[in-house]
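Weekend entry, working from home. Most of the wet-lab plans are on hold until the incubator is repaired, so I used the time to fold the two sequences that have been sitting in the queue since the last round of cloning. Logging both here for the record. First:
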Amino acid sequence: MNEPNAAHSNIATPKQHKPINQRLSFWVIILLVVLVAAFLYRHTSTAPVTRGSQKMPVVTASVKTANVPVYINALGSVTPTHSVTVMTQINGILMRVLFQEGQIVKAGDLLAEIDSRPYEALLLEYEGQLKRDQALLANALIDLKRYQTLWKQDSISEQTLATQQALVNQLKGTIQLDEGLIQTTKVNLVYCKITSPVDGRIGLRLIDPGNLVQTSDTTGIAVVNTLNPITVVFAIPEDNIPEVMQKMDAQTVLSVEAFDRQQNKLLATGKLLAVDSQINSTTGTVNLKAQFVNDKNVLFPSQFVNIRLLINTLKNAIVVPTAAIQQSTKGTFVYVLNTSTLTVKEQIVKTGVTINDTTVVDSGVSPGQIVITQGADQLTDGATVILPGSGNPANATQSGNEKRHVAA
C-alpha cells in the first residue's frame, strides 16, 4: 500500500519544475533580444554622426572689396561748452527770482534781483560828500590865490603858502576818493540785477527769494549750461596719439560719432576739436574733446556716450564676414569653396581690422572667392558640400551672394 504512493510521489516531482524552466528560458531570450537591439541601435545611431552621413547646413559668402572705415572706440562724457554758476557779487536780500527752472535763457536776460535800497542810500551819501568836498576845494583854491599874491608882496611866509597848497592837494584827493566811492556804489547797484552770463539752459533754483545772499556763498543761485553747441570729452590709448596728431597737424577734420549706452543708436555726429597737452600717467590715455552742434538737444551734460573716432578709411580693402574667420594651431584660416567640385579648401589668411561683422583680409584670399560662414566647425580640408535635397554634388549649383549648403 505504501509503495504505489511512493512511486506516485516520485513521478509528480519533475512536473512541478517544468513551468519554472520554461519561464527562465523565456526571460533569457528576452534579455538577449534587448541586448542585440541595443547593440544594433548604438551602431546605427552613431553612424550618421560621422562627417559625410549627417547633413549639416552651411552658409557661404563672397569675398568682396569695400572702403572700410577705421575707428577708435572710447567712452566719453558730455560736457557743456560753457557751464556757469550764477552767483551774487554783492551782499543783500534776494528779492525776486525771475526765471523758470529748466528754461532756455540768453546772455543778458534778467534772472534775479537783490534789494538795492541800501546801495541807493549809500550812493546818496557819497554824492553829498562829493559836493561838500568840492565846496571845500573851491574855498581852498581862493585862499591859495590870495596867499600867492601876499607872498609876492612879502606879506606872508613861504611856509604859510606851502601849507595852503598842501590843503588844496588834499582836497583834490578827497574828491577823487568820493568819486571812486560813487562809482563803486553804482556798480553795486548794477549787480543788484543778476543777469545770465551766457546762452544756455538754466538748471534748478538753488536758493529761494527772501534769503540773504553773500559773495562768500559757494552754491550760487542756479547753473547755466551752454548746450548748442556741446562738447564730449573722451580718452584714447596713448598708442593712438601719433596717428591722431598727424591728422590734426595736417588740418584734417576728423569725424566723431556719439552712440547711446547700448551702442545701438547714433545720437549725433561732430568733429574732433582739441587734444589735451599731456598723457594721464595712471591710465596711459590722453583726453580728447569733440564738438557737436546738438541742435535737437539729444546730448545732455554729464551724459555717458560711446564714441567712435574715424581715424582712417581703407580704400578697396578685401573683406569677408567675420564669421568666416577660423582659428587652429596652424593659424588663422578660412574655408574656400570650389564652385566646380563643391569642395572646400582650408586657406591660411592674414587678417586686419574688424569692423562690426566684417573683417579685413590683408592676404590669403581674393575678391570673388566663396568662403564658408556657417557650419565650418563640421568641415575638414577637402570636404564636399551639396545643396539641400540634392543627392549628387555634381548637380549642385550656386547662385547669389550667400547660399545654404549641406556638408556631405
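Second, folded right after the first finished:
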Amino acid sequence: MIYGYARVSTKGQATDGNSLEAQSEELKAAGATEIFSDTYTGTTTDRPELKRLLSELKEGDGVVVTKLDRIARTARQGLELVDQLNDLGVSVRILNMGGVIDGSPLGRLMRTMLFAFAEFERDLIVERTQEGKRIAKSRPDFREGRPPKFTEAQLDHAMTLLDDHSFSQVARLTGISMSTLKREARKRSTQKAS
C-alpha cells in the first residue's frame, strides 16, 4: 500500500501552491491510494493525521511526500521518523528530490544528507527572518505587534455612541468588538483619572 502525507503550517498556505489540495494531487499522481493531511507546523511531531498514518503502516508499505519539509523540519526529527519507518520495513519517497529512502546503505546515506540540507535551509530562513526583523526595528516608524484595526476617529465615534447606547448596541453599529470597546473605555477613563 502506498500512503501519501500532506501538511501545511497554516490555512494561508492554500494560496502559495503548497496547499493541501495541490499536494494531494501530486501524491495521487505518484500512486498514493490513501492520503493523510495535517494543518500543523512542521516543528511539532504531535500531528493527529501523521500519528494515524504511522499506526496504519505495515511492512512493505510506502509513504510519499511532495517535499522533505512536509514530513519534518529538522534533521533530527526527520532522521528519527524515517528510521522509525525503515525499521517497520516502510520506504519513504520524496517527490521533489526523486529519491526513495529505505533501509539500504544508499538509502541511509541519502536520508542523512537530505535531512542535513533541509535543516540547513531552515536555519537560513530563520536567519533571514531575524535579519529582516532587526532591520524593521531600526526604522523610526517601527511599531511592535499588529497595526491597529480601527482609527482614532472610529474609536472616538464609538466612545461618543456609548453615551446613549449599550456596549452591545455600539458593537453592532460600528463593527468594533465589545472587548475592544470595553478596553478602549477603560483606557480613556484611566487617562482622565490621571
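Plan for Monday: verify the second prediction. The radius of gyration is 25 Å.
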